[in-house]
Structures are given as structure tokens and as C-alpha cells.
């Protein structure tokens, strides 16, 4: 009885810590929404008030957005959040906070179902509760975080259904199918995961009516989702795939071919072609996903999902991740071991076919198994010293000390240094621009803002809560780019284009907004300017007022 109370207290404590790390100051850290969050939030706001997205489409199941064609489940979930809290940073992120916390909750029971160990279950739950990678993507409006929650719950239901409650096969199938409506990478990941489940658990699945009904439901929902999003996903894949950057393809295939005396020879064609290039790039991307720099040192290159000088995992976890893999290969047997390893090793595949892999969001499907494998390494070490009480005690102390040190460094980096030093990569500066533009003296002026390819329009629409009915009528786009993306030229009083300082300064009653480093010195000297300052004191934007 006392042991059960201790377990309950420990469980609640870990869950509270996990929730706190995902919820604390979530409106302020990260400092402002990123571009995708602004799009998700404003689209939810538009649906709430008009039933249409920014393109005027009624309740679509695929959202064109910037040409990246977002899937609908997170957006429609955010619609409820926006209704409750209004259009702001918190509303966009709150569903992700809940999804991340719920996955911390679920991983305890998933681990217990897989391996039947209370110690391993608590270790996995604790590691995931404080995992930097999981914390960061639970603090932004990340579709992939919701997909991880759905996949985790679906698999847990499946395992429960195998043991006793066969009716759980049906919600399991529905949840697996819904991941296709949540994040594009799950078209590959969920398909491979379900294939692995069939391979490893086929003999355990009861040959009764319920599993077949569940399979039918999964197939019907998946086909429906596939047909409703097929053309959109083809556009998205063409933009982000390995072949999405023509310059890279030219540099890696055409130039090497032309360096040979006979570029059209059979040998040159066999060694320099798209198949060879794609195979090499895929393997490089796949193995880089398990590399030390990506996991433990610097993380991914996309600053919307990583912080500077910190990996996706703690350094202390490096040996335990390796030991966990060895432990599962050598010390565990059976289908549960196999599905864990299968989950781990298929998780980078979707990201590996893209041009900017390894990518922290596209490989996020590795959760919650990454925490389980790392915990398995610690569990194995503790198991090996179990009979040596002093050594076991010292081992626990050493692990705790290193974990606490890594954790405190991370807390300092993420909650203190990151919002101060990296706010230029988030929506902080745009929020300040909107606050200035809403002042009475500027409210009626025309605005020209630079670099339309960075989608400044969505930040202005998001932070100003621009009337979505007006936006749908006023939005003017540039032609779609070669890689399928679309940028906004103008709406209302706002125009988005590269600023010609010699010409555009002649426009009357206009505000010219550009990144401060791009504003010429003579403009600063001759015209009234206002700088938008970041928390570190640096100027992000300069607003120039014409006569």
C-alpha cells in the first residue's frame, strides 16, 4: 500500500514537472510565433469567423498557406483554442502543450505494456518529461507533436486490445488514420509503423470480427484522406524533396557529368544521375539523423525548432542511447523488442527524403521511443550493478548529478538566453511592428515591407487580428515559385516587395519597413526613422516615414 502511494506520488510529480516545463511562460518563450504558427493561428481565426481560409475556401481539408499545404487536424484543434483564448501566441501553442503533456502521461503505460517494468516505465516517463527536443516542440504549435500523441495512444490501445479489450482495436485504427490528417511525414512513418505491427504481431491478433472491422475502418479513412490531400501533398513533396532545389541537383549531377571527357558515355550516366544522387543523399540524411551533432551538440539547422549551441538531447544521454540499443538487441527478445527497434529506425525515413535533413520536426516521430531506448540504457546499467549496493548507489548519484547539470544548463539556455538572443528568428519583431502601426499617427498610412519571401504578411495579419473577410477579398499573390511556394504581394494598405530606396522613398504618406541592416545610411540621415529593438538591444527592423 505504501509502495503504491509512493509510485502514485512519483507519477504525479513527473507529470507535473512535464506540464510545467511545457506550459511555463509559453506565450513568451519562444519570443513570438514562428511563420507556421502565425499561419495556423490566423487560419483558425479565419475559420472561426468566416468558415473559410485566407484563400476563401470553405472548411478545407488541406490548407494551401504558403504553398506548403498544411494538414487540417491541428488547425481545427486550434480553432477551439482561439475561440476560448482569442488569437494570440498562447492559443496557438496550448493544444501542443496538452499533446506533449499527454504523451508524457501515456509513455509510462506504453512502457509498462511493452516490458512490464515499473522502474523502466518511470525512467522513460522522467526522461521524456525533461527531454529538450520534446519540450521545445510542445511549446510551439507543432503538428508533428499532435501526431506523436495520436500514434502513441493508438499503439497503446492496440497493445491493450491484444490482451483483453478487443474493442480497442477500433479507436486504435481511427487514431492511426488520423495521423495522416495531422502531419505529412506520417504518410510514411505511420504506414511503416503499421506494417511493422502487422509483421510482428500478426500471430497475436485474434482472428475475430473486431480486428477486421478496425482494419477496414483504417483503410477507408486512409483512402479518404489520401484522395482529399493527394494533389496538395504532391505539391508539398516537390518543394521540400531531395530534388526540390534545382541548384543542388545541377551542382551534384550536371556539373560532375560535364567534367568528363565524354559526358554522354554509359559509365558517366550510370554514376551521375538522379537515382545515384537521391540514394547518396538519402543515406547521408538517414545516418546524420543519428549523428552526434544533430542529437547532442547543435540540433537541426532550422532555427524555428532548435536553439543555438544545444542538441536535441542531453550530452549525458549519449552513452545511454547507445547502451539502450545494445540492450534491446542483446538482452531482450520477442515482438515488443522488435517493434521498439523498428519504430526507432524508421523514424528518420520521412525526413531523409527532404532537402534540409536532418530536421527536428520531420524526425519527431522518434518519440516516445527515443526516451524509452535511452531509459533502457540506464536500466541496463542499474541492472548490472544491482547486487553491489554501494556501486549501485554511486552510479545513481553520478547519473543524477550529470542529468541535473545538463538540465540546469538547458533551462538557462532555453528560458533565459534563447528569448533574449534569438528573438530575431521568431515573431517578436513583427509583434512590435504591429503595435507601432496601430498607433493613431500611423494607422492610416500605406505600408511597404520588404522580403515577401519571409511571409511578413501573416505576422501582420496574426498580430493585428486583421478582419479575415477583408483579407480573403484583398489578398494578392505573386506567381507560384518553381518549388511550389506562394508569396503575398499585398492586402489592404500593405504591400510586400523588395524596397527600392531611391524610388520608393518618393511615395507620399508611406511607411517603409526593412531589416535594419538593409537601410542605407543616407535614408537614416535624411528621413524620420524608428527602430524596432529586440530584447538584446539590437535593431531588427527600421521603419522609415516618407513626407
Account of the 3D structure:
The protein is mainly alpha-helical. It has helices at 2-23, 35-50, 72-85, 89-115, 118-129, 132-138, 143-163, 169-178, 186-201, 209-240, 246-258, 266-271, 274-288, 292-297, 317-330, 335-346, 349-352, 369-384, 389-421, 428-437, 456-464, 468-474, 501-504, 521-526; strands at 446-449, 476-477, 488-491, 494-496, 510-515, 528-533, 539-545. Helix 2 (35-50) crosses helix 21 (456-464). The N and C termini lie far apart (78 Å). 43% of the residues are buried. The mean pLDDT is 91.
N-end to C-end Cα span: 78 Å
Mean pLDDT: 91
The radius of gyration is: 26 Å
Please tally the helical runs, counting DSSP H or I stretches of 4 or more residues: 24
Instruction: Give the percentage of residues in beta strands.
Output: 5-15%
> Structural class of the helices, strands and pairings?
mainly alpha
The portion of residues assigned to helices is 55-70%
How do the strands line up in the largest sheet? 2-3-4-1-5-7-6
Overall body shape: globular
Biggest sheet record? 7 strands, mixed
Low-confidence segments, given as residue ranges, are none
Compute the number of strand runs: 7
Amino acid at each position: 500500500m505504501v509502495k503504491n502511494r509512493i509510485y502514485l506520488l512519483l507519477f504525479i510529480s513527473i507529470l507535473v514537472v512535464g506540464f510545467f516545463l511545457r506550459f511555463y511562460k509559453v506565450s513568451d518563450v519562444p519570443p513570438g510565433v514562428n511563420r507556421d504558427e502565425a499561419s495556423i493561428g490566423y487560419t483558425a481565426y479565419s475559420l472561426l469567423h468566416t468558415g473559410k481560409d485566407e484563400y476563401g475556401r470553405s472548411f478545407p481539408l488541406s490548407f494551401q498557406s504558403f504553398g506548403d499545404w498544411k494538414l487540417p487536424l491541428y488547425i481545427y484543434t486550434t480553432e477551439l483554442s482561439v475561440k476560448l483564448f482569442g488569437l494570440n501566441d498562447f492559443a496557438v501553442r496550448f493544444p501542443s502543450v496538452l499533446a506533449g503533456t499527454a504523451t508524457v502521461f501515456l509513455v509510462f503505460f506504453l512502457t509498462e505494456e511493452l516490458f512490464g517494468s515499473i522502474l523502466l516505465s518511470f525512467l522513460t516517463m522522467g526522461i521524456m518529461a525533461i527531454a529538450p527536443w520534446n519540450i521545445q516542440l510542445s511549446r510551439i504549435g507543432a503538428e508533428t507533436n499532435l501526431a506523436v500523441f495520436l500514434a502513441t495512444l493508438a499503439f497503446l490501445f492496440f497493445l491493450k486490445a491484444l490482451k483483453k479489450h478487443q474493442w480497442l482495436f477500433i479507436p486504435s485504427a481511427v487514431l492511426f488514420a488520423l495521423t495522416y490528417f495531422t502531419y505529412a511525414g506520417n504518410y510514411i512513418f505511420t504506414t511503416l509503423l503499421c506494417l511493422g505491427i502487422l509483421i510482428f504481431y500478426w500471430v497475436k491478433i485474434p482472428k475475430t470480427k473486431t480486428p477486421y472491422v478496425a482494419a477496414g475502418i483504417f483503410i477507408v479513412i486512409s483512402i479518404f484522406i489520401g484522395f482529399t490531400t493527394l494533389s496538395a501533398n504532391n505539391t508539398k513533396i516537390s518543394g521540400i524533396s531531395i530534388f526540390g532545389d534545382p541548384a543542388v541537383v545541377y551542382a551534384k549531377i550536371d556539373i560532375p557529368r560535364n567534367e568528363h571527357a565524354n559526358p554522354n558515355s554509359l559509365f558517366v550516366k550510370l554514376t551521375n544521375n538522379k537515382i545515384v544522387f537521391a540514394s547518396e543523399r538519402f543515406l547521408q540524411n538517414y545516418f546524420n539523423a543519428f549523428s552526434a551533432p544533430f542529437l547532442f551538440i547543435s540540433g537541426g539547422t532550422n532555427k524555428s525548432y532548435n536553439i543555438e549551441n544545444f542538441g536535441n538531447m542531453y550530452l549525458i544521454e549519449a552513452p545511454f542511447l547507445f547502451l539502450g540499443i545494445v540492450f534491446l538487441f542483446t538482452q531482450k527478445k520477442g515482438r515488443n523488442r522488435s517493434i521498439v527497434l523498428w519504430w526507432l529506425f524508421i523514424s528518420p525515413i520521412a525526413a531523409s527524403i527532404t532537402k534540409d535533413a536532418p530536421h527536428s520536426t520531420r524526425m519527431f516521430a522518434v518519440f516516445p521511443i527515443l526516451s524509452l531506448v535511452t531509459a533502457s540504457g540506464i536500466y541496463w546499467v542499474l541492472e548490472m550493478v544491482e547486487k553491489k549496493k554501494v556501486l549501485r548507489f554511486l552510479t545513481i548519484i553520478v547519473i543524477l548529478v550529470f542529468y541535473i547539470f545538463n538540465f540546469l544548463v538547458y533551462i538557462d539556455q532555453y528560458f533565459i538566453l534563447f528569448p533574449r538572443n534569438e528573438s530575431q528568428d521568431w515573431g517578436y519583431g513583427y509583434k512590435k511592428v504591429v503595435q507601432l502601426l496601430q498607433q493613431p499617427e500611423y494607422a492610416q498610412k500605406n505600408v511597404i515591407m520588404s522580403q515577401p519571401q519571409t511571409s511578413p504578411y501573416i505576422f501582420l495579419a496574426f498580430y493585428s487580428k486583421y478582419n479575415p473577410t477583408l483579407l480573403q477579398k484583398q489578398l494578392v499573390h505573386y506567381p507560384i515559385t518553381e518549388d511550389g511556394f506562394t508569396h503575398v504581394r499585398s492586402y489592404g494598405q500593405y504591400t510586400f516587395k523588395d524596397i527600392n530606396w531611391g524610388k520608393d522613398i518618393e511615395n507620399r504618406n508611406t511607411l517603409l519597413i526593412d531589416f535594419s541592416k538593409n537601410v542605407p545610411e543616407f535614408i537614416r540621415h535624411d528621413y524620420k526613422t524608428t527602430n524596432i529593438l529586440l530584447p538584446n538591444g539590437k535593431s531588427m527592423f527600421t521603419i522609415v516615414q516618407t513626407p
